[in-house]
């Protein structure tokens, strides 16, 4: 019986082979992996269902058509990325230029404004509690692992984020944190104060939300 670790290892090797070798047949993959063609087909079928492998039919002059398997664009997510370091390098380079800090400020503010426009329809004509709930859903969609709760006083709420997908950037460019707080205040139409921050060594980012008087 194939154990989960072996399943994972074979899948990784298949991904590597298809990434480096391009379109391959079941027979070619079977030989390269030293496993049966039946086992290869089983893995490929599962990867097709996940949307990371596609198959192309190649007609031949004689005999049966040939089936070649290749990775889809979705499979790109399974390979290492270094976007955060590239972003940091570009921002640092920009910061060294004349008026670099002011330009970076405008970039983050522009991102804040675009996000506000993107989500304002989801907030429109809703009471504050529904807005907070919707904001948590939005942040969870971005990988922030957000939760929310009612505060004990003032009819307010607390929003907690246990993960920061842009932590490497926020740690160096705090404009990201400031603009997030401003975005929340704009979307919620409420007073928003950050009381804990991952970038400051906290265990989470917490926002205290109070209705505007």
Automatic annotation (TrEMBL):
Species in which this protein is naturally found: Cohnella yongneupensis
This chain belongs to the protein called: Helix-turn-helix transcriptional regulator
Lineage of origin: Bacteria, Bacillati, Bacillota, Bacilli, Bacillales
> Which PANTHER family does the protein's record reference?
HTH-TYPE TRANSCRIPTIONAL REGULATOR SRLR-RELATED, TRANSCRIPTIONAL REGULATORY PROTEIN-RELATED
* This protein's record includes keyword DNA-binding: yes
Q: Which Gene3D superfamilies match?
A: Winged helix-like DNA-binding domain superfamily/Winged helix DNA-binding domain
Q: Which UniProt keywords apply?
A: DNA-binding
- InterPro entries associated with the record: ArsR-like_HTH, Carb_Metab_HTH_regulators, HTH_ArsR_DNA-bd_dom, WH-like_DNA-bd_sf, WH_DNA-bd_sf
Domain HTH arsR-type, chain residue ranges per copy: 8-53
Q: Does the keyword DNA-binding apply?
A: yes
């Amino acid at each position: 019986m194939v154990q989960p670790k072996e399943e994972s290892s074979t899948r990784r090797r298949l991904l590597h082979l298809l990434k480096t070798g391009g379109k391959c047949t079941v027979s070619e993959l079977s030989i390269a992996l030293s496993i049966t063609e039946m086992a290869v087909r089983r893995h490929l079928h599962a990867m097709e269902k996940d949307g990371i492998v596609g198959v192309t039919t190649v007609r031949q002059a004689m005999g049966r058509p040939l089936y070649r398997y290749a990775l889809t664009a979705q499979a790109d997510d399974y390979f290492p990325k270094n976007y955060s370091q590239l972003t940091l390098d570009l921002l640092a380079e920009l910061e060294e230029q004349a008026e670099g800090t002011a330009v970076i400020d405008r970039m983050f503010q522009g991102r804040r404004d675009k996000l506000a426009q993107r989500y304002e329809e989801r907030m429109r004509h809703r009471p504050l509690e529904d807005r907070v709930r919707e904001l948590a859903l939005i942040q969870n969609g971005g990988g922030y692992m957000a939760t929310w709760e009612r505060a004990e006083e003032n009819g307010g709420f607390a929003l907690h984020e246990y993960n920061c997908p842009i932590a490497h950037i926020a740690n160096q460019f705090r404009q990201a944190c400031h603009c997030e707080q401003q975005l929340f205040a704009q979307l919620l139409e409420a007073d928003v104060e950050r009381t804990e921050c991952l970038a400051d060594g906290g265990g989470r980012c917490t926002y205290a939300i109070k209705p505007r008087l």
